[in-house]
Amino acid sequence: MHTDFTNNSNTAFSHPDHPPATITEHRGIRYLHLGTKWVQGAMRIDKPDAIELEYVQMMMMWMLFKPQPKRIVQLGLGSAALTKFSYRRFPETSVAVAELNPNIIAICGAQFALPPNDARLDVREMNALDFVLDTSNHGTVDVLQVDLYDEEARGPVLDTPEFYQACFDCLSDDGIMTTNVFGDFSSYDKNLQAMELVFDAVVWVPELQDENIVVLAFKKSPSLDFSDLYERAAAIKKQYNLPAKNWVNGLKQWMLDQQ
Question: What's the CA gap between 119 and 9, in Å, rounded?
Answer without folding.
Answer: 34
